[in-house]
Amino acid sequence: MMHIIGSLFDHRKAVTCLAFAVDGISLVSGSEDVMARVWDSKTHNIIRIFKHAKGLQQSRLAITEMLPKTIWNTIAW
C-alpha cells in the first residue's frame, strides 16, 4: 500500500518525470519549466538544479564514483 510521505514544491510548471536514485535518497524531478531538480528525499531540500534547453520528458540518475549525479534526457539522444 502506498501513501504520501511528503510534497516537493519548486517547479513552476507540470512535472513530467520523476526518478529515485539507487541510493534511495536522491530524487530527480524534471518539468515543463525546463528545469531538473535533484532532491534529498529525507529533508525535501534541493541538492542541485539543472536547466535543459527543451525541457525534460524522461530522466535517468546515475550514481558513480566519478560522476556523483548525472542527468540526461533520453528522448534527445
TrEMBL record:
A single BP term in Gene Ontology: DNA-templated DNA replication
Pfam family, any one: WD40
Record-level GO cellular component terms: nuclear pre-replicative complex; rixosome complex
WD repeats (start-end): 8-49
Coiled-coil annotated residue ranges, if any: none
Transmembrane segments annotated in the record for this chain: none
Alphabetized SUPFAM superfamilies for the sequence: WD40 repeat-like (SSF50978)
Record key words, sorted: Repeat, WD repeat
Top-level division of the source organism's lineage: Eukaryota
Protein name per the record: Uncharacterized protein
